[in-house]
Amino acid sequence: DAGVIQSPRHEVTEMGQEVTLRCKPISGHNSLFWYRQTMMRGLELLIYFNNNVPIDDSGMPEDRFSAKMPNASFSTLKIQPSEPRDSAVYFCAGLAAGKGNTIYFGEGSWLTVV
Amino acid sequence: AQTVTQSQPEMSVQEAETVTLSCTYDTSESDYYLFWYKQPPSRQMILVIRQEAYKQQNATENRFSVNFQKAAKSFSLKISDSQLGDAAMYFCAYRSPFQGAQKLVFGQGTRLTINP
């Protein structure tokens, strides 16, 4: 089985630009998570979907961030407008109910906003 | 809310020796899952080992084993016969089994260095 696939792997963008990060979860995973990792704050949950429905978005920093999961095989995290403090590694991860109880991560999207 | 604490920001060990990474957590739940993830310089999060709280037996995966002390809310990771490839950040994580609360809560991480 293919793992969680994220794109782009690396992105450098200018402040004020829109950034869209994409995730294709593992087939059969009914829960999807977006995490952000920075040196200062460590690993933070941004948003969590269950069966394509947002369950917990309390970690979304502000209105500049939005996430969607239009179907079970695709999710996006959008930042508009981007700021330098958004520079981080963004991880998408998935969980299959009843299958090992383990959350599996994609390789991450490294975002640099200059 | 659950919290996870890793009190050792950095650890180092000689190659082929054994090292133990500490983790404590706080929860009011009686059933939950605990994990150790490894993050090498590539930044990929790799599952090392998992433990279900209802199981009294400590989990083992080859050179990796845990010491799970439920009453003390402690979950340490022992790496035996350390190898250079074990050098990485190690994160301890907690997950609730309940719908709507299944997110991973991470500790701050421990950076492990292997000395040749």
Provide a compact summary of the structure.
The complex is a heterodimer of chains A (114) and B (116). Chain A contains no helices and 11 strands. Chain A has strands at residues 5-7, 10-13, 19-24, 31-38, 42-50, 53-56, 65-71, 74-79, 88-95, 103-105, 109-113.
Q: Approximately how much helix is present in the residues of chain A?
A: under 10%
Q: What is the helix fraction of residues of chain B, given as a range?
A: under 10%
Q: Main beta sheet of chain A, described?
A: 7 strands, mixed
Residue-averaged pLDDT of chain A: 92
Distance between the termini of chain B: 41 Å
Number of E strands of chain A: 11
Count of alpha/pi helices of chain B: 0
Task: Kindly name the structural category of chain A.
Answer: mainly beta
Q: How far from one another are the termini of chain A? A: 37 Å
Write the H/E string of chain A, N to C.
EEEEEEEEEEE
Query: What low-confidence regions of chain A span 5 or more consecutive residues with pLDDT below 50?
Result: none
The chain pair with the largest interface is: A-B, 24 and 22 residues
Task: Name the beta content range of chain A.
Answer: over 45%
**Order of secondary-structure elements of chain B:** EEEEEEEEEEEE
CA-based gyration radius of chain B = 14 Å
Q: Please state roughly what percent of the residues of chain B sit in beta strands, choosing from under 5%, 5-15%, 15-25%, 25-35%, 35-45% or over 45%.
A: over 45%
